[in-house]
Amino acid sequence: MELREELVAFLTENQEKFYRLAFSYMHSKDGALDAIQNAIVRALQHYQDLRNEAYLKTWFYRILVNECCTYLRKSGRERLYEPEVLQWKQDRQQEQQDPEWESDLEVYERVIELPEEKRTVVLLRFYEGLSLQEISKVTNTSLSTVKYRLYAALKQLKRSLTEVSQ
C-alpha cells in the first residue's frame, strides 16, 4: 500500500481517538476540530518527509499534539468549557450512580489540570495506549524524560486525589 493511502486509512480509522486527545487539550469542540483539521492538512502536505512508515502513528500524534499546543499558545491559553460540555458533565453526574464512573471522571478531570508536559504523557499513555518509546518520539524527548514526567504526574495525581477524598 502506498504511504499516502496508508496515512488516509490511519486517519480515517482513528478519528475518535484524535478528537478525544484534541478535546482534552482544548475543552472546546471547535478548537479540537480546528487542531485536528490543521494536523491532518499538515500530515497530508508533509507525508513524504516520513522516513520510516512504521512510525506513522507516532509521527501523526506528534503533529496533533504540536497543533494543540500551538493553538493554545496563540489563543492565550484560554481553555473555557463550552456550555454544552458543562451541561453534558452535569447530566452525566445526575444520570450515573455508578461510583466507579464518578471516580473515572474525577481522575480525568485531575489529569486535565496537570501541567502540559505531564498531561501529554498521561493522556498518550493511558488514554491513547501509546508505549513509553512511542511517547518519547511523539514528544521529541528522551525515554528517561518521559518516564520521569509520567512518574511525577502519577505522584501529583495521587496527591491530588488523596486530598479530594479526605
Kindly describe this structure:
This protein has 9 helices and no strands. The protein has 166 residues and is mainly α. The chain folds into 2 domains: 1-95, RNA polymerase sigma factor, region 2, helix turn helix motif (Rna Polymerase Sigma Factor, Chain: A), CATH 1.10.1740; 98-166, Winged helix-like DNA-binding domain superfamily/Winged helix DNA-binding domain (Arc Repressor Mutant, subunit A, Orthogonal Bundle).
Provide a quick synopsis of the model.
This protein has 166 residues and is mainly alpha-helical. It has helices at residues 3-13, 15-26, 29-46, 56-74, 83-95, 99-112, 116-127, 132-139, 143-165. It has two domains: 1-95, Rna Polymerase Sigma Factor, Chain: A; 98-166, Winged helix-like DNA-binding domain superfamily/Winged helix DNA-binding domain (Arc Repressor Mutant, subunit A).
CATH domain class name of the largest domain: Mainly Alpha
Summarize the amount of helix as a percent range.
over 70%
Poorly predicted regions are none
CA radius of gyration is 17 Å
* Sheet of most strands: none
The CATH homologous superfamily name of the largest domain equals RNA polymerase sigma factor, region 2, helix turn helix motif
State the secondary-structure class.
Answer: mainly alpha
Layout of secondary structure:
Layout: H1 3-13, H2 15-26, H3 29-46, H4 56-74, H5 83-95, H6 99-112, H7 116-127, H8 132-139, H9 143-165
Helix pairs in contact: 2-3, 2-4, 3-4, 4-8, 6-9, 7-9, 8-9
Keywords:
single chain; 166 residues; mainly alpha; Arc Repressor Mutant, subunit A; 2 domains; 9 helices; 78% helix
